């Protein structure tokens, strides 16, 4: 990076250029007039050019000074805006969620308008990931994972059990379950045993042929199904969420229990959740309880 002038000098220069008066700039910055003069002289020496014209009882900007003042003012405004948006008081009211990409796309994102209706005025930042077996991420208030709840160094709370179900493109003819074996079966990496388990639960042998498609997310798997590439087996929650969002899909068979669940995770020594996070967690638990009861 190119060497920059002292930021204190730049801040002093911006104020002096705006007021065209060292005394007023000093008052704004809480400095002495002598300190302002020293900062300006130091900056001019660093740049090798005068920035001000000095006449009796009158201070002006040189052409270079006028151009530089615009650039410095914009740069300082950009820093102030970034600081305010990332670290300012408003940030303390943001609800920061993290979840696997398919959980975010086909479940959590669709629930956020309902949360906002119940708790208006809370900004939400939802980020997602594909694989997450490491430590809990910093910078989030609510961290939701799909797994078996055995992540080292993390405190876990099971939010909801899950089932899996086969899905096919909407409009495909109804078929008996054994006929599904003849279709192209799409696999999701890390969950290749889902198809054999599902067929076994129906009392059917597992297909022996290889799969043409293997993808790393439910999002990609369902896109392939909608394109007519075959069938996928996904979380029932995700399939129902996609269908509710208008995806041209339908369930192709009954659900079976899944060995993984959605968990809330946090580091062992994490601070208690802030007010927005606690509101969301209470709301989410109540919604899941109502869904399970209904």
- Tally of individual helices: 9
How many domain regions? 3
Output the CATH topology of the largest domain: D-Maltodextrin-Binding Protein, domain 2
Distance between the termini: 60 Å
Order of helices and strands: HHHEEHEHEEEEHEHEHEEH
**Which outline best applies?**
elongated
**Regions with pLDDT < 50 over 5+ consecutive residues?**
none
CATH architecture of the largest domain: 3-Layer(aba) Sandwich
Mean pLDDT: 90
Radius of gyration: 30 Å
Fraction of residues in H or I helices: 40-55%
Quick one: CATH class of the largest domain?
A: Alpha Beta
> How many DSSP E strands?
11
Under CATH, the homologous superfamily of the largest domain reads Periplasmic binding protein-like II
Helix vs. strand class = alpha/beta
Strand content: 15-25%
Main sheet makeup: 9 strands, mixed
Tag the structure with descriptive keywords.
294 residues, alpha/beta, Arc Repressor Mutant, subunit A, D-Maltodextrin-Binding Protein, domain 2, 3 domains, two-stranded antiparallel ribbon, 9 helices
């Amino acid at each position: 990076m190119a060497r920059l002038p002292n930021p204190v000098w730049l801040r002093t220069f911006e104020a002096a250029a705006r007021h065209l008066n060292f005394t007023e700039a000093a008052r704004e910055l809480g400095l002495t007039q002598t300190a302002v003069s020293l900062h300006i002289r130091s900056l001019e020496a660093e740049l090798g050019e005068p920035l001000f014209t000095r006449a009796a009882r009158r201070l002006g900007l040189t052409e270079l000074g006028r151009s530089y003042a615009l650039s410095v003012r914009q740069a300082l405004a950009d820093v102030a805006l970034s600081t305010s948006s990332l670290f300012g008081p408003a940030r303390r009211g943001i609800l920061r969620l993290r979840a696997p990409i398919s959980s975010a796309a086909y479940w959590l994102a669709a629930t956020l308008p309902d949360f906002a209706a119940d708790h208006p005025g809370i900004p939400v930042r939802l980020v997602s990931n594909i694989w997450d077996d490491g430590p809990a991420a910093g910078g989030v208030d609510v961290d939701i994972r799909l797994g078996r709840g055995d992540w080292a160094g993390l405190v876990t709370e099971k939010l909801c059990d899950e089932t899996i179900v086969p899905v096919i493109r909407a409009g495909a003819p109804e078929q008996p379950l054994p006929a599904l074996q003849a279709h192209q079966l799409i696999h999701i990496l890390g969950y290749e045993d889902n198809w054999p388990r599902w067929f076994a639960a129906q009392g059917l042998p597992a297909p022996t042929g290889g799969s043409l498609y293997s993808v790393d997310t439910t999002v990609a798997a369902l896109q392939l199904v909608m394109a007519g590439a075959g069938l996928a087996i996904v979380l029932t929650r995700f399939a129902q969420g996609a269908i509710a969002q208008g995806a041209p899909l339908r369930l192709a068979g009954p659900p079976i229990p899944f060995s993984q669940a959605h968990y809330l995770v946090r580091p062992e020594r994490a601070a208690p959740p802030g007010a927005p996070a606690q509101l969301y967690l209470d709301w989410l638990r109540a919604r899941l309880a109502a869904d399970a009861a209904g």
